[in-house]
Amino acid sequence: MNGAPRALDGTDPSTTILDWLRAQGLTGAKEGCAEGECGACSIMVARPTEGSGTQWTAINACLVPVAALDGQEVVTSEGLGRPDALHPVQREMAVRGGSQCGYCTPGFICSMAAEYYREGRCAPTAATPDPSQNGHEPAATANDPGNAPDHEHGPNGFDLHALSGNLCRCTGYRPIRDAAYALGAPADDDPYAARLAAAPPAARATRLDGATGTYARPGDLTEALSLLADHPDAVLVAGATDWGVEVNIRGARTPFAIGIDRLPELRTLSVGDDSVEIGAALSLSEVERGLAGRVPLLDKMFPQFASRLIRNGATIGGNLGTGSPIGDTPPALLALEALVVLASADGEREVPLADYFTGYRQTVKREGELIRAVRIPLPLSEVTAFHKIAKRRFDDISSVAVGFALDLREGVVTKARIGLGGVAATPIRALATEAALEGRAWSADVVREAAAVMRAEGTPMDDHRASAAYRTATLGTALLKLHAETATQQEVGA
Amino acid sequence: MTIAPERTTTTAPPTEVPAGAPGPAIGRAVDRVDGLAKATGTARFSAEYPIPGLTHAVLVHAPIARGRITALDTTVAEAHPGVVLVLTHHNAPRLTPPPARMNPMDLSTMAAGSTIPFLNTDEVHVDGQPVAAVVAETLEAAQYAASLVRVEYLEVTPTGDFDAELGNSTPVRSMPVMPPTGGKRGDARAAYGRSPVQVDLAFSTPQHNHNALEPHATTAEWDGDRLTVYEGCQNIDWTQKYLAKRFGISAGDVHVVAKFVGGAFGGKSKVWAATLIACMAAKVAQRPVRLALTREGVYRTVGGRTPTRQRVAIGASASGHMEALIHEVTSRKGRVGGEADQVVACSLDLYDAATILAEQRIVELDLMPNTAMRAPGEAQGSFAVESAVDELAVVLGLDPVDLRLRNQPGERSPVHGTRYSHRRLAQTLERGRDLFGWADRPAPGTRDGKDLVGWGVAAAIHPSWEFIANVQLTVDATGGVTLACAFHEMGMGTATVVGQMVADCLDVPLERVTAVYGDSDLPMGPGAGGSGQTASLAASIERACRAMRKRLDSLSDRVGMPDGSDPGEVLSRAGEGSLTVEVGADSGPRATWGQVRFLSKMVLDSRRWMKAATGAHFCEVRVDADTGELRVTRWTSVFDVGRVVNPKTTHSQLRGGIVMGLGLAMGEETLIDTRSARIMNPSLAEYHVPVHADVPHLDIHTLDDPDPQMPLGILGAGEVGIVGVGAAVANAVRHATGRRVTDLPLTLDRIVG
Fold it and tell me: Nearest by CB to B42, which of A35, A83, A249?
């Protein structure tokens, strides 16, 4: 904890790291929503890179049980710096007016610091904003909406998505972005930068018993499956981005929680000749980094999935484990014809994702089974896309999500796989649309016909995210959008 | 309570110091005095004071909106390890009922969030009303035990459907001195009927909730009959006096501490259920109690912005002169509190229509009473009137900026007849038009790739307010200057700009000045509302500094130093340790005299002057032609907020207002289940405030032109930013798509239609 060990004795297994920190008097991290939406609770944890080093990773402290961080390294805004010894991120936020009421500030600091230390973030350039512009607006013209290289990256390589899970209600975000874009490279003697070269602490098996139940982290898969056999009603907790909400908002408690997020067998990523296998306990950020663009459809999905803070915690297995009809990975994985690898004490079995969901939050997963991995068959289709329509640009739940994977040969659709979310009680494949496309020309006429079929897919309903009519209309236009995009690409390519 | 004057001042080129600034500090983009404390997580908010023996309270909310508790079983909760007590209407102390009516001599009579006698009744009046509070040694134990309290209810069908109740509305009467909820110039209905060009549109805006990032939190501790309350509030004076009244103790026995407030926007002006219950629980437990609301708890126990149904009808001549402007509004309040927002206020002062009619009606529902939220009324009303004006421009084939300029009032307010203290709305429109490059506005419905591109404009106006600010100014022999006042710092930058104002008014270096604030032990401050705190403080600071300078000068005469000498040197030479000047008094005859003087000045002023901040917004939107997805891609606003004391904090306030306006335009909506009168989306996951990616580069400009009738020329900047934003976006959508969306928020299904 900020460089010194602190005992977890007497802590209840349902206590989040946020509540624990605040009870310890470390009140920098704050609660704004208790469900991973606002980021006021953001802290940094030392997590492994794909190599042998450490990556400072910002997560939502409000969601994670403190027991899950037993033996881990945690840094809060108080640990990063003090008023008389400021961290560079804190200095930039303070002098650029990035802090207004101040309640969201420590959370922004941690998210920003994690990005500050991200390996591969570019060195600062001469385009760093002039500090004398502080509080004064550089003139914006129709041709120059700002001085950043693009809308989501600063001249210093800062990826604005790092802050997508942090809400501010006061500043209008502008001074926060100014602070982020003004950051240079960490100094040579920066202890947090120096920490990156060495490995983070290994996960350790742990068990915490309390008034309302037990949290147990097994050492390996065998132990996990045997615990699961003994406690068939146990809740499997990985990134806790869903379970934390159940605990905080709906008052859920479980007699037995099994932490599976650090099981080595669930944290492998391998690319074989005929498939890519992704360990279920890899966070979406880890999957994104590990795949390094090898599955373009997933790359299109990742930035749309909640926020960086959530993706740093949420696992790919967890997104399937909850069986939600509006998760963002299922439409993409359905289009990729992914298989779910289920493990139990009796061995493993593979289930096509299309057969995995059986009803609203219901799946074929049996008692005693857990998701070990997700397998994506190779080769991949060449035309892929992910369309997510939501009320807000990022950090939101989708109204409708569509994953596309098409094979085209000489202008003919040889294979079409389309996954849909938000239009039925489960994520579904758009089978009728697929049939309407396969074996036919990828032409405007055929696409229009197939789009009409797609309008009728699923059974969308009215809710506060969108009306059924809107969802239907969106389905109808998604294919037209894809066709327009591929036409543009082909023109550009030619 | 003292913040060390640890300022890292930004060196601004001299050209950026506005002309006419009274001194070297005012007008400078000084860094926030508390930025370092906030960035390092060491700034203490009201739930963060370490208090020995602290207990934690968690509320049990009623799941019905109207009815009566028939059974209440707390035994299981009480038996849970760590539980100290469960407070219900059976064991809670009886409180004095809230004041029945407002007393102009004691505005804390307006502090009641609602009239519900919390935990003093078995009746339920709104969904989520607290019916019990569990107090435990740990937050975890209190949270879990709260789920173990069993309550049964006899439910009565609530009235929760705003639209269904519109027929049962009653007229709202304008109150003197209060913001106007109606007005009349000539016979607008007749003039409208005769007008050759007519636009008549119906609008709706939904309920909004403040969603300050800090959920309301109270830490309460009793010492005998003395109560200390750590409470992130925006009116310390109201909180102190109101709690004293309810608990039957003297105001002097209530100590309110509100050093850092994590955003408020109007939602922390009044005293809500949790504050009272924390104090009750601490009294019964005889232990300090902390009650930090959950996000849902804030939605359930603190009011939001009233929804509106509006009609705007404008009649004009073919040349674009407004002959008639009619604005009719219905808003809602709770059966147990709330009041009308000044929704029509903008329509009384934006345009010089030959005839004007503005009327408001109100309905009562079984919902949480509404309360002020950033530009209450102006935010919703400006959406309607500025959309209708834009539609008129479309119908007339006129440029919407030209139409607005053509209808600007002269020296006097068209309805009130009062004189504008200074009016710069036309200049904000003209300057914004140039800065945005409006001359290159694309043709309606211009398509760029998959997007339709549109440009929109809207005007903004927000009246200026002043309140009583008692201050104490002290100079010591080391040259240190301290201004003490129980004002509020919720992020606006008040603690910073106060130092700047004192430095220049007393002619001392900024680094010498320290502001002490946020504590009821200090002289009574102004409430942080109506964008009036800075101007209110400026008036008293000017007076205090003048008086201090006079005393310093007589001292310097005595010791043979020239007038205007350094205060520290004068005091040293005179052998004085310190010198203190007070403006106003908190109690006794001087306080009453201060009240009388303040009220008469307010009445007199309101008869003579119309003082207001104004502005103009220009924006570009892109609408996905297939999906209706809306992005705001460019934004320029120009404001007249009078003198700008600190461009850094002022611009941030204005930008923050615009971003809240973008929320109003594009996503924010509190959804009510009309059958159960229950909020369906009490969370930041389902109530969509703007995220970073929703917000374009906001280009903000201020005229920095002091208002001759306001203290130091300050008009206030907290609220004008949000006014007109909804219309600017809707007008750009109209320009892009040809579709006039009249219901907020502008969600993609409404844009697609």
Answer: A83
